[in-house]
């Protein structure tokens, strides 16, 4: 027995020795390094990150540590991040969609208020006020957006439209329906291409912007606009009608599959964010054009990637320098030219960008900004997921009243 | 005292590592999950507010669109079709092989092979085979039907809102029928030849031989097969994720858990997990009890 007890004491002693040693190991060199946690591991996103790092190296005396977790369009990274935050092992900064998707982190006290730094770095003037309104939670800003994508863009196959005799760009929902009818009569099987749940949510949002206007639309996600109002019902009915012009096997399609319908000339229109053209071009398709979703006017529905300052970061000064670089004109330029998005700042030189981005920058400066739920700018992660589920159900059963009720519950976070 | 310790001490010492690991990582974590499922931890923020069974009630009564009940319904359809399909095909193949087909070894391997493929890999292939396009847009099996002028066989597969889960069970049946066949074949081989001879002597026809002598002896094998395939079906996740991805049409509880975890709703995810555990236990516990009884009797 005596021997066993001694062995037990030795085992406990060994464990006690191990734990401080482990902590000591993690801290060494932390004052010089900034660990940046992203899911940008390849393609244009990786190139953009490299550009950002170049700007960071120029502006700061810290060294960059790449904490990228690849795979699953960010879902893998989010899982890793959640467990690291719970264990109190936060990276120095992490990537997150700007806007309401951050609300969980804010409520959990996991990220810090950056309002004072916004003033100090001049971001309050450099970013459009509409964006800052969308980003603010109780008057405070918690993240620095690095890029902007537009989600309410309708892409067209020029030859399909010309062949069917659609010559004028539709500017209202009514004109869009006429154009879709013309395409259908001309034998285009699915005039409007669409994919599974979240792409359908994007379409629903675009229709609601047309029927409600930008202000009431934004209110849908904050609780200021009633989901059960007759205007929303009208919007949902228009959405249902639009779905009848889409490919019936939509739920089996990811967005690139739906985009292929447009490329193959099986569809005339395709609603997708402005990351679509880079996919078109890599696949050798150039016969496309774009317009803002009919009825949206100058409304610019945005989504953005951003960086935050986590509570308990090892190296908060280094993180602040990273965020400053991310928000700077040089950093945004280096990132966006490579990723194919546009800077969140409005004081940029348009001439440096390719043609589509130039027009988007112009629209960003002059338009009305509204956030997107399908991409986490307007909704928390829970609300977005519940909305996608409700949209998926509607796609299969077309139950309009059910959709209205479910969207209302989802937007208010009753999932 | 010391002699008693001598008797069971070494044995206990030997199994203690696995006992400890099981205790912590299986039963300890089940306990933890149950605790979380009764808390109000619906976000990433720490919270230990105790809410009793209200998360469970919400799942059944207040879920948006009755989403949880929908996932249970999907699981039920999937399980029934999966079980029926594997049992019938497995029994049929075992019966054919047992009748003495030529090249039995080859067929056995051919039928058993799909089981060696992971659900993820076969799911990706079946995703393509079960392409829901029809007519001019047909792909996969629908295109084959089209070329054979069997257009009436073209169907929307898993995208059918009511019966899509039946199609989802097809790859699972394809994959596990061979395994059930192997079980039944072992069952047939385990029946002593004397019984067949005795039946022949008594003048039983082939039908009577199977109906009255052989099949009744396969009951324990059939039960094992049901349990093994049944609990796999309850936990089905990888196949569905690779065929359709996570979406409303094909959502089952295991996929729902994953979806809620991604949105940091820990309490809800735990509640679904506990229900899933109970469902599996419902299948397995009676089986274990029965096995233990028969073992004690022998």
What would your notes on this structure say?
Chain A has 18 helices and twelve strands. In chain A, the strands form three sheets. Chain A has a five-stranded mixed β-sheet with strand order 2-1-3-11-4, with helices on one face. A four-stranded mixed β-sheet of chain A has the order 7-8-6-9. In chain A, strands 5-10-12 form a three-stranded mixed β-sheet, sandwiched between helices. In chain A, helix 2 (43-59) packs across helix 14 (316-327), helix 2 packs antiparallel against helix 15 (329-339) and helix 17 packs antiparallel against helix 18. Chain A has two domains: 36-147 and 303-362, D-Maltodextrin-Binding Protein, domain 2, CATH 3.40.190; 150-302 and 373-411, Periplasmic binding protein-like II (D-Maltodextrin-Binding Protein, domain 2, 3-Layer(aba) Sandwich). Chain A has helices at residues 2-27, 43-59, 75-86, 103-107, 115-121, 123-126, 129-135, 158-164, 173-185, 197-222, 230-243, 255-263, 276-282, 316-327, 329-339, 355-366, 381-397, 400-411, and strands spanning 33-37, 63-66, 93-97, 143-145, 149-150, 153-157, 192-193, 269-271, 288-292, 299-303, 305-308, 368-371. Chain B starts with a helix and ends with a helix. By secondary structure, chain B is an all-alpha fold. The radius of gyration of chain B is 24 Å and the shape is flat. Chain B contains 13 helices and no strands. The chains are: A alpha/beta (415), B mainly alpha (298). Chains A and B meet through helix 3, helix 4, helix 17 and helix 18 of A and helix 12 of B.
Summed up:
The complex is a heterodimer of chains A (about 425) and B (about 300). Chain A is α/β, with parallel strands linked by helices.
